[in-house]
Design a protein that fits this description.
The complex is a heterodimer.
Chain A (H helix, E strand, L loop, with lengths): L2 H11 L18 E5 L2 E5 L5 E6 L6 E5 L2 H4 L15 H4 L20 H15 L5 H12 L2 H7 L24 H5 L11 E5 L13 H14 L3 E3 L6 E3 L45 H18 E4 L2 E7 L18 H10 L5 H23 L4 E11 L2 E11 H14 L2 E4 L5 E4 L3 H9 L5 H16 L6 H12 L6 H18 L17 H19 L9 H4 L1 H6 L1 H11 L1 H10 L1 H17 L2 H5 L7 H28 L1
Parallel strand pairs in A: 2-5
Antiparallel strand pairs in A: 1-4, 2-3, 6-7, 8-9, 9-10, 10-11, 12-13
Chain B lengths: L8 E11 L4 H4 L12 H11 L5 E10 L5 E6 L11 E19 L12 H13 L6 E2 L6 E6 L14 E12 L1 H4 L3 E12 L2 E3 L9 E8 L18
Antiparallel strand pairs in B: 1-4, 1-6, 2-4, 2-9, 3-4, 5-6, 7-8, 8-10
Classes of the chains: A alpha+beta, B mainly beta.
Chain lengths: 642, 237
C-alpha cells in the first residue's frame, strides 16, 4: 500500500483515541492543528467576559481548529484560524492599543480582524454552528478584548495606559505573561484560547470539547467546493488545496506534499496549471487524516535525530518495539531487574544465552499480541530544504517478518555494551551510537541521517552492515590512547558487536572467552589483554598512567609480532612487583600466557601481518575472564596463601 | 486475467542500478519518491525505446520482479528556474531487474498508416532490435536511471518474490491516455489497484473499464505528423 494510504488506515483504526487527554500529544481530529496558547479567556454562555488567565508553559498545548490555508500558514499575510488565534485577529481594539499587524496587512490594519470575524460568523451561521462558539462570537463583536485583558491584569499597559508594553523594563519581577511568551515575541503575539463556563456542562474548555471539533470539521468539509478524483482512494471526493505541515514538531514548516513549480522544474511539460492539481489530487479527508496520524505517530513513537524522523508503527495501532534504539530499551525496568538478579552470581558463559532467552521472550510477547496478519510500516523522512520533506525510506512488512528481523538484529549484532556507569547492558547498539563511533567528531546531522538510512535495511532486511562503518568503528576501538576511557569502552563494545555481525556467516563468536579457538587474531588479542591486565594490576594506587599494552594497541593491531616484542620485556618490572605483592595473580597470568603461547602455530606467531577485528573480541573476552575469576580464585587461593 | 500471450509478444529482461517510478503525490513537491513496482507507462516507454512505429502501440501484459525491492535515497541539486540550485532528496529503487511480456496492437486512429500494418514485418524488426539491446536508450522511469535489455524467457530464473503470495500496492499510476491513441481530444491519467501475485503483476489493458480509474487532466489536441507512406512523391521509382 501507498504510505499515505497506510497512514489513513492507521487513523481509521485508531479513531477511538482521537483527543485522548492522557497522551502528551493526542491524535488530532481533522481540520485541527496543535498550537501553543498563552492567554485563556473565560466567558459565560451569553458572551460576557468572566475571567482571563495566563497559561504557563506546561499547559500551553492546545488543539485549535484551522482551515487549509491557516494550518500551514506563513508569509506576510498569514491566513486566520477560525476560533483561537493571535491578538491581531481576535481583538477589534488591536490597533487602538498600539499593535502593529503583520507587514502584509499594514495597508489595512483592520483586515486580519475582519477576516477572522467573517470566518467565525460564517461558521456560526451555518447549520453546523455550535452554541458555545456563538457565545464567543457575541463577545468578539463587542471588540474589547485587549481592554478586558488589561483590566484583568493579564496583559500590561504602559504608564500612559494607552498601549501594551513592548517589554518589561521595570525592576521588579516580570508578570507571568512575559514568561509564558516564547523568546523574541512580545505581548502583541499572545495567542488566545477560549473557555465557557456554563452550569450543567463540566467541560469548560472549548478546545477539548469533541462536539466543537465535530462542528468545525463538518462545516469546513462541507464548505469545500472542488471535487475530483482522489489518487489515494480512487473516489470522487472534495480535494485538498493545501496539505498540512507541522509534522515533526510544532514549528516544522516542511510539507510532504507541496507544489513547487513556480520556482523549480518539478512537473511542467504535460501539465499546464501552476498549482499541480492536474498532476496530483488527494481527497481532503484523506490528507488531513493521514497527516494527523503521521504527526501523532512521530510524537508518540518516532525518533528524531536532527532533521530526520524515523517512525515504525503497526497499521492496527498495536504497540511494537522501537527499531532505532539500543537493546536495553527493549526491556523495561522489570526485565532488567530480573537480568541483574540472574547474572549477579556471574558466569560469563551464560550472559549471552541469558540475553538470547530474554530477547526471545520479549519478542514472543509482541508476536502473540500482533499476530501474523498485521502490517508494520517503517518510514524515514528528512528535509533538505525548509519547506519540503522527502520520504527517504519506506517499507511495509508483515509483522512476523518484522519481529524475526528485529530479533535477528538484536541477537547477531550484540555484545557487552558499556555506555557509562549507569548504562551497561548486553545487546545491540543503536544506529546513532554506531554513527558516533564510526565518525567521531566529524558527525553532523546530514551524516547521521544518511548513516541511519544505511543501517535501516541492516536492521529490517538482515542486510550486511556496510564495510566502511565496521572498519571505522574497529579503527576507533583500536586507537585507544587518543580517547578518554569511557569513550573507548563504549567504542570497544560497539566495534565488537559490529564485527561479530559482519562475520556471523563465517565464524560464530561467543560472548565468553573461547579457550579452544586457535586463530591467530584471537590469540594475539588474548595476549594483549593479559599484558594490559598484568600491568594495570601492578600499578600502585597513585600511578594513573596507561599500561604499555594500552598505549601500543593501535601499533599492535598493525604489527603484532614486533609490538609484542616491545610489550613483553616491558612487563618485567611489573612482574617483579606482582611477585612481591600478589603472587597468585602472577601465577595466573603466567598460566594464561603459557596456554595462549601453546595454542599458537609457530609461523603464525612470527608473522607481522595486520590483525583483523577478531583480536578486539578476544581482548574483551579475555579481559572479562580475568576479572571474573577474581572471586573464585580469591576463595581458592587465599587459605593457601595464608 | 488470462495469461495467454498473443503471438506477437516480445519477452525481455530489463535491469539497471537504479529506477525511479515517480509517485505523483511526491512529484509535485520536487522530492521524488518511487513506487516499489514499475508503472505500465514506464515499461511501455522501454518497449517503445526498443522499437516503435506510429502504426502500433505497445500493450504491456505482465511484469515479474526478480530482485528484492530496496530503496535508496540520494541527495540531488536540481536547478531552479531563477538560476542556481535547490536541494532535494530523491528516493530510488536500487539494483532492479524485471522480466516483461509485451505485445503490440495497431493504432486504429492513424488511418494514413493502414498500408503499414504488416504484423510479420514489425514483429521481426522488434525481435532483431531487442537482440541488439534496443534502438534507443533504455531507462527505468526517469532518464538518469540507465538500464539495459536483452531477450529473456519470462519464467526463467528465481525471482525474489516467487513464493511471496499476494502483495497489494494500493492505487497506482497506470499511464497516460494521449489523444493520438484514444481518439478523444483530452489528456487523461489512468490509475489502477496494483497487486503482485508471486512476484508477477498483470497489468489491465488501457481500455479496461473495470480495473482502470481515469482522471481528466486537460484538453489536448492530437497532432500526428501527416504521412502518406509509400505514396510519397519521388520515393519509389
Amino acid at each position: 500500500m501507498n504510505w499515505i494510504e497506510t497512514l489513513y488506515q492507521t487513523y481509521e483504526s485508531c479513531s477511538g483515541r482521537i483527543g485522548d487527554a492522557q497522551e502528551q500529544e493526542p491524535l488530532l481530529p481533522i481540520c485541527h492543528t496543535p498550537q501553543n496558547a498563552h492567554v485563556e479567556i473565560t466567558l459565560d454562555p451569553l458572551g460576557e467576559f468572566q475571567a482571563a488567565s495566563v497559561i504557563e508553559k506546561a499547559r500551553q498545548k492546545t488543539v485549535v481548529p484551522c482551515t487549509e490555508a491557516s494550518g500551514g500558514r506563513s508569509g506576510k499575510k498569514p491566513a486566520t484560524h477560525p476560533l483561537c488565534d493571535k491578538l491581531q485577529y481576535v481583538a477589534g481594539d488591536f490597533s487602538k492599543f498600539g499593535g502593529k499587524v503583520t507587514s502584509g496587512f499594514s495597508s489595512n490594519p483592520v483586515e486580519p480582524h475582519q477576516h477572522y470575524l467573517a470566518l467565525l460568523s460564517a461558521w456560526c451561521e451555518s447549520p453546523q454552528g455550535h452554541p458555545r462558539v456563538r457565545s464567543v462570537l457575541r463577545y468578539i463583536k463587542t471588540g474589547h478584548v485587549i481592554r478586558d485583558l488589561a483590566e484583568a491584569r493579564v496583559l500590561h499597559l504602559d504608564s500612559a495606559g494607552k498601549s501594551l508594553l513592548a517589554e518589561w523594563t521595570r525592576d521588579d519581577d516580570p508578570p507571568p505573561i512575559f514568561a509564558a511568551l516564547p523568546g523574541g515575541t512580545s505581548q502583541w503575539d499572545a495567542f488566545v484560547r477560549w473557555a465557557i463556563e456554563e452550569p450543567g456542562n463540566p467541560e469548560v474548555r472549548l478546545w477539548a470539547d469533541p462536539s466543537v471539533w465535530e462542528s468545525w470539521s463538518t462545516y469546513y468539509t462541507s464548505s469545500i467546493v472542488e471535487t475530483g478524483l482522489c489518487q489515494v482512494t480512487g473516489l470522487q471526493v472534495s480535494l485538498a488545496k493545501q496539505h498540512p505541515a507541522k509534522l515533526r514538531h510544532g514549528a516544522d514548516k516542511a510539507k510532504l506534499i507541496s507544489s513547487n513549480d513556480s520556482s523549480g522544474y518539478t512537473f511542467r511539460g504535460r501539465f499546464t496549471d501552476p498549482d499541480g492539481d492536474q498532476a496530483c489530487g488527494v481527497g481532503f479527508d484523506v490528507t488531513q487524516k493521514a497527516h494527523n496520524a503521521l504527526r501523532w505517530l512521530i510524537a508518540r513513537q518516532g525518533r528524531r535525530d536532527g532533521g530526520q524522523a524515523v517512525v515504525a508503527w503497526a497499521v492496527s495501532g498495536h504497540e511494537i518495539p522501537q527499531i532505532v534504539d539500543a537493546s536495553d530499551s527493549l526491556f523495561d525496568e522489570d526485565d532488567s531487574k530480573q537480568e541483574s538478579e540472574s547474572t549477579a552470581g556471574n558466569e560469563a558463559i551464560d550472559v549471552g544465552q541469558d540475553y538470547a532467552l530474554r530477547l526471545k521472550k520479549k519478542i514472543g510477547g509482541y508476536r502473540a499480541e500482533l499476530g501474523d496478519t498485521n502490517d508494520i510500516v517503517v518510514l524515514a523522512m528528512d528535509s533538505a530544504t525548509r519547506g519540503r520533506m522527502a520520504i527517504t525510506y519506506s517499507r511495509e512488512i508483515a509483522s512476523s517478518e518484522f519481529l524475526d528481523s528485529l530479533e535477528s538484529w538484536h541477537l547477531t549484532c550484540s555484545w557487552h555494551q558499556n555506555f557509562g556507569k549507569d548504562r551497561k547492558f548486553v545487546g545491540a547498539p543503536a544506529p546513532r551510537d554506531i554513527a558516533k563511533c564510526a565518525f567521531g567528531r566529524r558527525l553532523d546531522d546530514k551524516l547521521l541521517a544518511s548513516t541511519h538510512r544505511r543501517l535501516l535495511p541492516c536492521i529490517l532486511d538482515a542486510r550486511p552492515i556496510p564495510d566502511d562503518l565496521v572498519r571505522s568503528c574497529l579503527h576507533r576501538a583500536e586507537a585507544r590512547s587518543g580517547q578518554d576511557r569511557w569513550d573507548w569502552e563504549k567504542s570497544l563494545g560497539i566495534a565488537c558487536a559490529l564485527f561479530r555481525k559482519q562475520q556471523i556467516n563465517n565464524h560464530q563468536y561467543s560472548m565468553a572467552l573461547e579457550r579452544d579457538r586457535t586463530s591467530r587474531n584471537y590469540l594475539y588479542g588474548r595476549l594483549l589483554a593479559v599484558a594490559d591486565h598484568l600491568e594495570s594490576m601492578a600499578l600502585e594506587k597513585d600511578e594513573e598512567r596507561e599500561s604499555n599494552a594500552a598505549r601500543l594497541t593501535l601499533r599492535f593491531a598493525d604489527h603484532p609480532f614486533s609490538t609484542w616484542r616491545k610489550i613483553e620485556p616491558a612487563l618485567t618490572p611489573y612482574r617483579r612487583r606482582l611477585k612481591a605483592n600478589k603472587p597468585w595473580w602472577l601465577a595466573r597470568y603466567d598460566k594464561e600466557l603459557d596456554e595462549i603461547m601453546n595454542l599458537f602455530q609457530p609461523d603464525e606467531f612470527n608473522a607481522d601481518d595486520k590483525l583483523s577485528g577478531e583480536f578486539l573480541l578476544a581482548f574483551h573476552c579475555q579481559r572479562s575472564a580475568l576479572w571474573q575469576k577474581w572471586d573464585k580464585h580469591d576463595e581458592d587461593e587465599s587459605p593457601e596463601e595464608n | 486475467m488470462s495469461h495467454k500471450t498473443p503471438k506477437n509478444s516480445i519477452s525481455f529482461a530489463v535491469w539497471g542500478k537504479y529506477a525511479l517510478f515517480t509517485d505523483p503525490l511526491t512529484k509535485v513537491g520536487g522530492e521524488k519518491c518511487t513506487y516499489h513496482v514499475p508503472t505500465y507507462e514506464a515499461l511501455k516507454g522501454i518497449a517503445e525505446s526498443i522499437y516503435w512505429k506510429p502504426t502500433f502501440t505497445w500493450i504491456i501484459d505482465r511484469v515479474r520482479v526478480m530482485n528484492p525491492i530496496r530503496t535508496e535515497a540520494k541527495n540531488v541539486k536540481p536547478i531552479n528556474i531563477s538560476g542556481g540550485n535547490t536541494l532535494a532528496t530523491y528516493t530510488y529503487l536500487a539494483d532492479v531487474r524485471y522480466h516483461v511480456i509485451a505485445h503490440f496492437e495497431w493504432n486504429l486512429h492513424r488511418e494514413d498508416l493502414t498500408a503499414d500494418r504488416i504484423e510479420g514485418k514489425h514483429y521481426q524488426v522488434a525481435q532483431r532490435m531487442l537482440k541488439k539491446g534496443g534502438r534507443r536508450d533504455i531507462y527505468l522511469g526517469a532518464r538518469e536511471c540507465q538500464a539495459y535489455v536483452e531477450p529473456c524467457d519470462f519464467e526463467t530464473g528465481d525471482g525474489a518474490y516467487d513464493d511471496a503470495g499476494e502483495l497489494a500496492f494500493g492505487l497506482m499510476f497506470h499511464g497516460f491516455d494521449y489523444p493520438d491513441t484514444t481518439g478523444e481530444a483530452k489528456l487523461q491519467s489512468r490509475f489502477w489497484s496494483a497487486t503482485m501475485r508471486d512476484g508477477k503483476l498483470d497489468f489491465p489493458r488501457p481500455d479496461d473499464k473495470d480495473a482502470i480509474t481515469r482522471k481528466f487532466v486537460r484538453e489536448m489536441e492530437p497532432s500526428p505528423p501527416p504521412s502518406v507512406g509509400l505514396a510519397e512523391k519521388g520515393l519509389l521509382p
